[in-house]
Write a structure and sequence with these properties.
alpha+beta, elongated, 4-stranded mixed beta sheet, 4 strands
């Protein structure tokens, strides 16, 4: 259920480049909307994002996921 997205450019090679990281919890999302969320994340991260969706047991027809991301400073504000 957890996906890791690492979009740091040249990680570890430029000590002056600040990095950000975070976790996005999707507690419940309609399975019809899930692909649209992946497209939006791909636009933010600048790379394809294949989320490992799992069924949300308390909401039939819904899915949930956890995305851990690492990226350049400012990624979370997009």
């Amino acid at each position: 259920m957890t996906v890791v997205v690492d979009v740091r450019a040249n990680a570890g090679r430029d000590p002056d480049l600040a990095h950000a990281r975070g976790v996005l919890f999707v507690h419940s999302c309609s399975s019809a909307v899930a692909p649209h969320l992946e497209w939006a994340l791909a636009r933010v991260f600048g790379t394809s994002v294949d989320v490992d969706w799992s069924a949300q047991p308390i909401a039939p027809g819904s899915v949930r996921a956890e995305i851990i991301w690492h990226g350049p400073r400012g990624t979370a504000s997009k």
